[in-house]
Amino acid sequence: MPEGPEIKQAADKISSALTHSPVEEIFFAFEHLKPYESQLKHHRITIIQTKGKAMLIHFDNALTIYSHNQLYGKWMVRKAYDYPINNRQLRLAIHNHQNSALLYSASDIEVLNQEQLALHPFLNRLGPDILDEALNLEQVINRLQDKQFYKKRFATLFLDQHFLAGNGNYLRSEILFVAKLHPILRPIDCNQKQLHKLAQAALSIPQQSYQTKGITNNLELVTQLKAKGCKRQEYRHWVFGRENKPCYICSTSIVKDITGGRRYYYCPNCQKQ
Q: Which position among 53, 91, 143, 172 bears the catalytic label?
């Protein structure tokens, strides 16, 4: 499942491709959305927002396309009507005279007016977006100490979209490694210094991933590893996807574990219980 940084990167590409001119045509795969094809045609996209893993495409007629990629959804931006050859099912296509934004495989798509958007049950339950520039250290620390979160294990908490929206498997593992906290610990188990370091990582790691297209490792180390001929999958992350490989800090073998069917990774030496 794409996480917050990947959704925001997709939103940036779509915005660059489509906001400069009116939409010429829209295709919805779902019959109940077909009436909106004519309602959105020839209108302009005013802004594209992301909230966690959801995308909101706002039009100048006060309608908004809401989409969530879920596990298999994928956005593609291509030249107008240049459909790729693949086995995915096209769910949504937005075209102008130059470009097309194509959403494949996703099933969670809606068209909302302003009232429906304000009352949307999923969006209203989301916590602060991890990439929201207004989100600050104090707010993250306050959420960590909130009674609804402070007794949850980090391995569970950092997938809870009510806590911070946009985190997923790889961000969870990387944030906890940078903060040097074991995934089974809880906020209540930590002192103020640890919570402060965790809050810093919760803000900085998603931002770095967004800016670097998914790299969460130390960037100086990444440069060194690239110079040695390492592939992207080898230098991209501190711990995620690196089971049994040596920790970049202490050389201890990285451990993979699973909770709720979702995998996470950690260094048992750097992240002691």
A: 53
